[in-house]
Amino acid sequence: GGAYVIEGQTSNGQIYVEAGENQVHLILNGVTIHCEKSAPIYVNNGKKTVVTLAKDKDNTLSDGAQYEYSVEERDETTGEIKGEPNAALFSKKALTINGEGTLTVNSKFNNGIGCKDELKIMSGNINVTAVNNAIRGNDCVVIKNGNVKVNSTNGDGIKSTKEGVENKGYVYIEGGTVD
After folding, report:
1. Are 108 and 81 in contact (CB under 8 A)?
2. What is the pLDDT confidence band of residue 61, given thresholds at 50, 70 and 90?
3. pTM, full prediction
4. Which residues contact 110 (CB under 8 A, 6 or more apart)?
């Protein structure tokens, strides 16, 4: 766990979070991360992860069209790929995005931003282009503020599903601008 300020660029790298039950705070301070065979940011575990977009800084995440793990299933109805990670910014646990900077996500593989728990966007300028869902939550997607622009080729702009669990799987937009 802990807070980490991340700067610079890599043409084929990954931020991988393995934090047990600790909270992680990633401060993106002008990063460009491309990961050809997986998610540029992959949160495997941790109590909660907060991604802060540093003020007036541009941050870009991009991936390649094929990930290294073997994907055996694709949902026939939604086209969603079963396997992990399945998004350029992927978290298995609760994920919050905030700050006064910009995050641009270009996903050629599947989803742009994906979370298997609660996904909250509190502020920031977020631009996501993905071949499937641009923003995908499981328990929920909550947008409180910020400027969110999504573009999906084959999926939904913003999606959250949690089959068989009452009061989960919703999208809630309270403020900000969503396009």
Report:
1. no
2. very high
3. 0.93
4. 80, 81, 86, 87, 130, 131, 132, 133
